[in-house]
Amino acid sequence: MSEQLKPLCGVLDGVLERLSVIEARLGISPCAAAPSAAAPAIVEDEEVHPRLVAYDEHIQRTLVPFTDSCAALGTEMESVGGNIGEVWDSVRIIVELGTKYKKPADIPTGLQPHLKPCQDAMAKIRSARIDRKFDWHLKAIMEMLACVSWVVMSPPPSPATFVKDTIGASDFWANKVRKEYKSNENEGPAHVKFCDTMKAMVLDLSAYLKEYHLSGLAWNPRGKDFSDAKVGEGSKPAAAAPTAAAAPKAAPAAASAGGIFAELKNKQTGDGSSAATGLKRVTRDQQTWRKEYKNPVGNAPKPASAPAAAPKPAVEKFGAKKPLGPPKCEYQDRGCKWNVENQTKDTCEGGVCKIEVTDVKQQVYIYKCENVTIQITGKCKSVILDSCTKCGVVFDNVISACEVVNCKRVQVQATGACPSFSIDKTDGIVVHLSNEAINESSFVTSKSSEMNVSWPDDAGEIKEAPIPEQFLHKMVNGSVTSQVSDLYH
């Protein structure tokens, strides 16, 4: 070897030694030397795809507790839990095929041979002959297994939504199990745990699909052609990950701080040179990552700043509350109508808008008012309350009717008589009746909720009752009959 290359070889040896020490401290196995012709090549294990890793975590996190809860119910349910484990393992094979192969032209047809183990396991569950007390358990499981078909579906709906929707049918039978055993102190906890773990498993599967298979079974666009896939091809699920991270392997003695300095000292030559000899120090002004770094070239001309863009008009958010228009409270001769619009507590003195009706032919139309009280004196033809929020209306006498449409949290008070109240598409209304209107008023409601009516009794005390929203309908002699639900009796 040339005498000129010896110093360079020493530097390289020092760098390699330092890299090996760093690898030992980080727990990284050192790279093996290139194999000779006589030595066989070492093939490293292929890294597991993140989709498979997440699926294995899903199995360990939810499937294992569910099968354990099945085993706690007896040997019959233990075999059913084992069959469910086979179903989930078969789906894992399909997920693994998606990581290796391209998407086939017809997914259901292409996957049909690979789904046979899954179908066989489900057939065993369907034909299981177990104790009659597990009938509801088995029905809940069969409804839950409908979620497995996510592997052959394409949105809409998304697989995550489809799987989550199967909980309703499964919970119908699971709730029967909960109700049957919730008061049984001995067997109850095991049956309730069975229901809870099954629901948790489906919810966790939905979360997994939302992250890794949002628009259907994910495939590998750079993978092999799916026609090359073999039935039963796939690896076994990974072992359960330990709850606590394993402690890293102890680094060799040289990895300690004292060992590093000792080894560096051994690498020094007689004149004190080492692997770091000759390296230049990076000064502060050369550390370009610092905020205060300035270009040392000098006062270079700065690029002309782009003209400031005109501010964009504010985009109105969906569902945002629109501002009210100008307030109005005026009488129109045409139609004999009072128009009261966009009134609030700020536009009226004391938060009360007063209207004096002088002719019984006049009607009052109240539109888009908020947090205000409308007081109507005199006898009028009708009162209409449209698209109002948190409003109160007080009137004396109405000849025709009082109509409330598209309102929220309003109150209507009749100090005199009002033959009819019509309530449509309104959420939250209280109708206050006077003694004169108690026996005369009627109510017509549709698409409304939270309706109540109050009135004074003979002793002068105010009573309140809900207006029914739920009804029972029956077919009697070829016609539909309706009656108020028992909730209001």
Describe the structure.
The protein has 489 residues and is α/β, with parallel strands linked by helices. It has 9 helices and 16 strands. The strands form 3 sheets. Strands 1-2-4-6-8-10-12 form a 7-stranded mixed sheet, with no helix packed on it. Helix 2 packs antiparallel against helix 3 (75-100) and helix 6 packs antiparallel against helix 7 (159-181). The protein is flat and about 120 Å long. The N and C termini lie far apart (107 Å). The model is unreliable at 31-45, 240-256 and 300-304 (pLDDT under 50).
Q: Which helices and strands occur, and which strands form pairs?
A:
Blueprint: H1 6-26, H2 50-71, H3 75-100, H4 107-111, H5 116-126, H6 135-144, H7 159-181, H8 188-212, H9 257-267, E1 328-332, E2 337-341, E3 352-356, E4 363-367, E5 373-380, E6 382-386, E7 392-398, E8 402-405, E9 408-414, E10 420-424, E11 427-432, E12 442-446, E13 449-456, E14 462-466, E15 471-476, E16 479-484
Parallel strand pairs: 2-4, 3-5, 4-6, 5-7, 6-8, 7-9, 8-10, 9-11, 10-12, 11-13
Antiparallel strand pairs: 1-2, 13-14, 15-16
Helix pairs in contact: 2-3, 2-8, 3-5, 6-7, 7-8
